[in-house]
Amino acid sequence: MTDLLLDMTDIRIEGRSERRWKPIINGVNLRLNRGEILGLIGESGAGKSTLGLAAMGYTKGGCRISGGSIKFDGQEMVGASHNTLRKLRGARIAYVAQSAAAAFNPAYKLIDQYCEGPVKHGVMGRDEAQRDAVELYRKIRLPNPDQIGFRYPHQVSGGQLQRAMTAMAMSCRPDLIIFDEPTTALDVTTQIEVLAAIRDIVREYNTAAIYITHDLAVVAQMADRIKVLLRGDEVEEAPARQMLSDPQEDYTKSLWAVREFRREAPQAQPEGTGPLVEITDITAAYGPIKVLDKIDLTIPRGSTVAIVGESGSGKSTLARVIMGLLPPSTGQIKFDGTPLPKSSRERTPDLQRHVQMIHQMADTALNPKHRIRETLGRPLEFFLGLKGKAKEDRIRELLTLIELNPDEFIDRLPSELSGGQKQRICIARALAAEPEFIICDEVTSALDQLVAEGILRLLDRLQREMNLTYMFITHDLATVRSIADKVVVMQHGVIVEQGTKDEIFSPPHKPYTELLLSSVPEMDPDWLTDLLQERGDILAAKD
Amino acid sequence: MQNFMNNLRDAPVSAWIGIAIVVIYAVLAIGAPLFAPFTERASVGVQYHPWSAPHYLGTDALGRDVLSRLIYGARNTVGIALLTTALAFLLGATFGLLAATLGGWFDAIAARVVDVLMAIPPLIFALLILTITGTSVLSLVLVIAVLDSTRVFRLSRAVAQGILTMDYIEVARMRGEGLLWLIRKEVLPNAAAPMIAEFGLRFCFVFLFISALSFLGLGIQPPTADWGGMVRESAKLIGFANFSSWQAATFGLAPLLPAGAIALLTIGVNLIVDWVLHMSSGLKE
Hints:
Largest sheet of chain A: 6 strands, mixed
Strand content of chain B: under 5%
Shape of chain B: elongated
Strand content of chain A: 15-25%
Number of helices of chain A: 23
Shape of chain A: globular
Number of helices of chain B: 12
Helix content of chain A: 25-40%
Distance between the termini of chain A: 48 Å
CATH class of chain B: Mainly Alpha
CATH architecture of the domain at 4-105 and 175-257 in chain A: 3-Layer(aba) Sandwich
CATH topology of chain B: MetI-like fold
Order of helices and strands of chain B: HHHHHHHHHHHH
Number of strands of chain B: 0
Radius of gyration of chain B: 22 Å
Structural class of chain B: mainly alpha
Number of domains of chain B: 1
CATH architecture of chain B: Orthogonal Bundle
Radius of gyration of chain A: 25 Å
Number of strands of chain A: 20
Oligomer: heterodimer
């Protein structure tokens, strides 16, 4: 076959931990033709990123390629000299990282960073590279392409940065680009723009791509072929359409089934009990910038209220106001009929105990130096005054409740847990206080779908068993569909629309809700094309 | 503990050399009366005895045994440096962590006071104070500790500010935890690695600072043996050194012995510090 570009055979990669080399990838084959897009999917720890990087002949610190061969355009990369690899990387193989904000150097303008590659590789001169940058910025549909390159990374939005990053990867017109979860950190409305831009530009230059993601619906839009990985082994590989309609392996089927979780209706509450939380006329600001404007919201007992909106809509600020971390300038919050003091410092521990919050990033929400025993023991001691044996027993009970084996986990540090396990510990910590109301701030957005579904099911079960009330902040509408009773849509600090799940999800929609709803990727491989077509038609009709 | 032993086993050769040097110094300093053949103060032989039994490293201008003085010097110089560094850390870290956690006016005032102290060159400042208070060991320790605590303050405050933005701090604050818990249980354990590394570096600087003061005559006072003072006493001998024979050459090497002792300890401590910093940075290569 003449158009074979990348041929990785029997790749084995090991990582060093606890003084031993442990396998990360156990003999995976990967072939890629020119102009083809391969989707690599799997849960976290499956080795997707490691395999993606290996396609550049690169491994992260502490890892090594222990076997196999990587041929790029006939050139062997395993064991190739540093110089040979340097000539390939950037020029013929490029990489787009998950977080563009972290991957750009904040001290240089975008266009300077764009020019660095082509100039260093001798592909073109500086002036030519600058003209080329503007041209590519235009093609990738960045607003104001003539000037945007002269801004610094912090002066453009996340979605624009991700597109600028893609343009930068294209700067030497490489034969292969590796996209490592390029849209995971973006919200749905921005994600669409980035996906469309990436897809068009890759097709235009007939660039081959490896697209790494844990989002199946995204991969369905992008890839020609899909490869599923599980703990360093290949599960299966097939052309995208075939894989989506007819997965062969049980593991793949379970991945596909994740999106079908629906919870049952909430429990009926005894008569005569009012709503648990009543928020009236809340306005809050960070300094002179108003972030919440006259929010009115009631949260019924035992139900789940989902707050949706893109980043910057004020969702998380609302949570901070309820927790008393950001005192509002006007308005009142009533909990179980009693008004809450505005600042958490004025609230009694007993009042604090009833309202708990679970953070988005379990990584930063757990003290890395505290063992699970201490993490869970402290709230028990602090709020409930438990000590000694009673405390130990309750910690074990909590661990059992969140489906972790107490004997195995009680003495671990957060660094010895997976992402999903960390989030479970955060849930247990919230439960330790025996709360009535829990705010879940994007609790599943940092997790891959299979793990996220486990967390949602756990939260649902706990709600039934303990009659908990949730406020669920998310930008993922699939999550909302699975767990919410009531949905609140926010934009720019105001509530755009609120109602029961059925009301919000069935037409007629308000324009912003419509935009959010239509932006959620679906498993249909034609979804993106159809959607862009449709939106284009609407725009054309307006003109 | 298990973790610590594992880390120790993974330590590179350089760290092991550092550990060996520091352990040898510590053993010599603690057991000085056992190891030193003579006392540090008494004249036990002729002036400028060459390097031969019973004075293996010769004697100084007053006929005191140089080997014994070196061993006692380890005890005095290192002991005082250690005490001073510990005090500087107690002071600096307490205020630094408090300033970061409390914020507000406390932070503002503490930071400005520290800025003022740091603006004055430390050697000049120490000389000034020591001239006023007189050169007792106590005033020496206090002056250097206060001067050095400003650097510790800056570091601990910066490290703590980074940690305080973490969500687990927010969780603790929402729980209504007191200041003491926040600092002791949430911030301090996470700030430990850079602080330990800084402790090693600070220790070297304090130690050099004391030696410098002793060299200038305002540090540890004779007849107590200390390395800085020994360098000063024998520095002029270099000019009279005669390298025609091995016996004569040892005479000229006299100032290099205490200076070498200072240098070796500094290198040893830094080798360990490099290793601790490397571990705390999370780099794997």
